[in-house]
Amino acid sequence: MVAGAFPLAKLMYLGVRQLSKPLAARIKDGARASPFFRQYICGPPAQIYHWIEMRTKMRIMGFRGAAIKPLNEEAAAELGAELLGEAIVFGVGGLCIFLEYSRQSANSKKKEEELSSTLLGLQEQLAELALTVETLDAQLREVNRALVAVSASPKK
């Protein structure tokens, strides 16, 4: 038997993540086709990525200060579109993780508040019962005094 409710929220997050991949592919295709995206959105990040990657490889191989040629426009657009697609999938995945964390946090806070209110209610009941015990104890002492007074009085 499965305890608890069906994790519908997790299923929805998984569906959103799966839908983000085709969405990213469509955005990549649009970015490759649009001159604005090629030049201003995809190109600069691709050139920076290429520069960092080549510089790192050159340093690993021991070449210092070698000039790195920029990518041609077609290769930069392709690499930039791939980076954009991966960034979209990564962003959607990160958003899903954040939403799941906030949902779990809210559930935890709700359970903690319920436990706190239950504890407060039990403390109030305990105080009421202590007062009742004190009242009954006072009544019992009064009855005992009356019984002692009746038994100590002279019989007629």
Question: Would you give an account of this structure?
Answer:
This protein has 156 residues and is an all-alpha fold. Helix 1 packs across helix 2 and helix 1 runs antiparallel to helix 3.
Number of strands: 0
Strand and helix order: HHH
Could you tell me the radius of gyration in angstroms? Answer: 37 Å
Low-confidence segments, given as residue ranges, are none
What general outline do the C-alpha atoms trace? rod-shaped
Number of helices: 3
Largest sheet: none
Structural class: mainly alpha
Topology:
Layout: H1 8-33, H2 35-61, H3 73-152
Helix pairs in contact: 1-2, 1-3, 2-3
Summarize the structure.
The chain is mostly helical and 156 residues long.
Descriptive terms for the model:
156 residues; mainly alpha; rod-shaped
